[in-house]
Amino acid sequence: MSTFNLPDVGEGLTEAEIVSWKVQPGDTVAINQVFVEIETAKSLVELPSPFAGTVTELCAAEGQTLEVGQPLFVVAEAAPAPSGAAQPAPAPVRSHDTDPEPGILIDSHALVEGADAGAAPLVGSGPKADPVRRRPRLGRPPVVKAPAAKAPATATASAAPAAHSPAASGAAGAAAVVRSAGPAMASILNRVLAKPPVRKIAKELGIDLSKVRGTGGGGEVTREDLISYQAQREAEQAAAPTFWSHGEQEDRIERQPVKGVRKATAKAMVESAFTAPHVSIFVDVDASRTMEFVQRLKKSRDFEGIKVSPLLILAKAVIWAAARNPSVNASWVETENGAEIHVKHFMNLGIAAATPRGLLVPNLKNAQDLSLRELAIALNELATAAREGRTRPADMQNGTLTITNIGALGIDIGTPIINPGEVAIVAFGTIRQKPWVVSGEVIPRWITTLGGSFDHRVVDGDLSARFMADVAAIMEEPALLLD
Amino acid sequence: MTSTRQDSAAPDSAAPQGALFPNADAPGPANRDAANPDTADGEMVQLLDQDGALRADPDFSGYISDVDAQMLRGFYRDMALTRRFDQEATALQRQGQLALWVPLRGQEAAQIGSGRATRSHDYIFPTYREHGVALTRDVDFPQMLRIFRGISNGGWDPRENNFHMYTMVLAAQVPHATGYAMGIQRDQAGWDRARLEREGTAVVAYFGDGASSEGDVHESMVFASSYKSPVVFFCQNNQWAISVPTRVQSRIPLAERARGYGFPGIRVDGNDVLAVLAVTRWALERARRGEGPVLIEAFTYRMSAHTTADDPTKYRLSAEEESWAPKDPLVRLEKHLRSAGHADDAFFEQVARAGDQMAARVREEALAFPDPTLEDSFNNVYAEAHPLIAEELRWHKEYEAGFAQSPAEAGQEGAR
């Protein structure tokens, strides 16, 4: 029996999806006979068999994604026969009707999304390294450099303080990078790149350019991007009347496989909702002073080119309030000797972000160390990275408390579910002018609703109420931050 | 050749460069202005059309007067074997046996025609796609796989066949070629014309339409022109620099660029093995005689992907690929061989069989290549022995000797 493992058919690809099998168990294959079609992040590829014999097993189903190196199919080899030349099947006809202009690359992001490839590289960014396999030494090598021998001891010593604040050392580096980003950089990151004619078309069509995925250089939104976005929008709207269908019950159910971010979100939410008893509380806040403060910051020279929003003040308020009510910045940990509550003396502030890939919660490491200006830059960078799909797994680990901004779509408030591993989450509703009673008079004020969910195993009602009141206090009077 | 060509003048007496270039210093073939860089309609030298019929050319027919039926069958065999090899290597890459492969399907005539025009003492600087040229220089097919299998920086000894190692860096081999040609000029200083024609060495620099945009090519052409160095710039314009079409690289036919440097440029039908042979022979003779460089633009088509990591369906249309199918260099030569009665079914079957046998051998040898040792790396740092390298090699050997040799030993070590 010979097993053929999925090779890296591009340069540095890590996985591929099985598109269609060209053979079935029991079939005879010859060397170089095409036996499967796979789709990588780069292209559709037909694989020729390296063996001649009888197929005994197909190791994956069509539609399944395999990592490079996993078994693909198994052949009982026959006596070697002369190999034939691989004859590629005719490719589907490409014409101007269906394709963009030749020489213009198709949106490479679409390829990744279609394959649900997560972190699949689009270009050869280096193949996955082989696992390091080390042969045992017979004795000390004849020449050993002194620093190398010392290294393990140093590592052990430095590990002790690190245990006090896990992830602190890695986070410090990230924070340093954030700090070095100047205002010019931030303005580049925030601004949607598009040429004036494209902006004009977007304006005419009523399209928010920040919602369009740019495929041009540096993420520039091109005319084609706009056209395809509009086509998709029209298709969605046009599809609505045909959504309801008639016929057999089975045919009327659309089956969507749960994978990728959807799967991860589902798992996290079930884990959180059914292990942490949630208690949720809400508070209406007069955020008028926050709005004024934001306007002042926008005009300030120090914040020139930096995007400032009420979310920035809320983030600062949450950090401030967590220091006064430390139990909300903690986690519940089951150990061999019973449960423990780990109170974190650092704030890795998670921001829930709706991205084209789904819901992601990247966090700002050591957010407590950031000035208001640094926090603004970091928030923008985090949002940009999430929107462009550049969020790294490390950005989503070791969060300590999360903010979710559900106001963007005009929603007043909801009950948030705690991010697993944390004990508190703050939801931020839309801010709008409402009638408000001030000194006995009804006047229009900027009102928002804050909601918080807390793990009742760790945070009792009074503590959650104090924490939320502290957050609300800052939103009502940001000057308290100077305290 | 056919009987109608029997009365063709011998190459030497035909002296086509005389007709084309009355003054060797006057740049450019005056009567060969190619029209549009984008189409094959531009003027180009063609001796065998796509229906397999011979076409006379007053300047270049004379250069292939020695080509007989046996040579024609040889060219076909070269091209067919090269194509079969290309298929096998592509399959090996798909099977995970090569890290990468660079297919050449469609460019066989440009490579075999030009390669067969060289003499054994001429020196060739290839790109990474010149598998057909390598064949004409007697490099064995399996050796060409070594670099793509990641077990060698080369694969063959360039000194044995005067065929340089593949260069992965785009256009980097072109200045090397010009420099080499300038060296030859100095070695051959004082030779008279007769000796130059008889024993002189010429250099061929291969590159593609994409590389023609690189600064290296410009610099090379400036130097080669200034010193009238014996180098032939052989550009295979296969229409696509990965996903960038030639019309983006140049607004005029690439061959016309030579005029600006002050030496002749000529466009040849790159899918016509006879035309390529004739034009390259002319250019090499000229170079050997000390009349300076020539730019040959072989107008051809990459029928496959740029490399196995590329997917051409992303950037070009089926209609374009189909339009090139009738111009296939093998198809046209087969038509000619059959219509002229030079070859029958038995010949083509025999070539196909030989191809399959060659492919099986290539596969077998490629899979059996030994892994290189780190020790090998020390051999190619300097041309000659070097004390520092010798010391590092000694240290490396001692270090390696410090490890258990086999799992059994490792087990004993653990038990002790």
UniProtKB/TrEMBL annotation, chain A:
The record's annotation in SUPFAM superfamilies points to: CoA-dependent acyltransferases (SSF52777), Peripheral subunit-binding domain of 2-oxo acid dehydrogenase complex (SSF47005), Single hybrid motif (SSF51230)
The answer to keyword Transferase applying to this record is: yes
Locate the Peripheral subunit-binding (PSBD) domain: which residues? Answer: 193-230
What keywords is this UniProt entry annotated with?
Answer: Acyltransferase, Lipoyl, Pyruvate, Transferase
Q: Which InterPro entries match?
A: 2-oxoacid_DH_actylTfrase, 2-oxoacid_DH_E2_comp, Biotin_lipoyl, CAT-like_dom_sf, E3-bd_dom_sf, PSBD, Single_hybrid_motif
Q: Name all Lipoyl-binding domain ranges.
A: 1-76
Q: What class of enzyme is it?
A: transferase
Q: Which GO terms describe its molecular function?
A: acetyltransferase activity; lipoic acid binding
Its cellular-component GO annotations read: cytoplasm
Entry's EC annotation: 2.3.1.-
Recorded protein name is Dihydrolipoamide acetyltransferase component of pyruvate dehydrogenase complex
User: What species does this protein belong to?
Assistant: Zafaria cholistanensis
Automatic annotation (TrEMBL), chain B:
Name the gene that codes for it.
pdhA
Which PANTHER family is this protein grouped with?
2-OXOISOVALERATE DEHYDROGENASE SUBUNIT ALPHA, MITOCHONDRIAL
Report the protein name in the record: Pyruvate dehydrogenase E1 component subunit alpha
| Biological processes, Gene Ontology terms | branched-chain amino acid catabolic process
> Which keywords fit this entry according to its UniProt record?
Oxidoreductase, Pyruvate, Thiamine pyrophosphate
Stretches the record annotates as Disordered: 1-39
InterPro entries (alphabetical): Alpha-ketoacid_DH_E1_comp (IPR050771), DH_E1 (IPR001017), PdhA/BkdA (IPR017596), THDP-binding (IPR029061)
Q: Where is the Dehydrogenase E1 component domain?
A: 77-364
- Statement: the UniProt record of this protein carries the keyword Oxidoreductase: yes
Gene Ontology terms for molecular function: magnesium ion binding; oxidoreductase activity, acting on the aldehyde or oxo group of donors, disulfide as acceptor
Task: Respond yes or no to whether keyword Metal-binding is given for this record.
Answer: no
Q: Which cofactor does it need?
A: thiamine diphosphate
- Pfam families, sorted: E1_dh (PF00676)
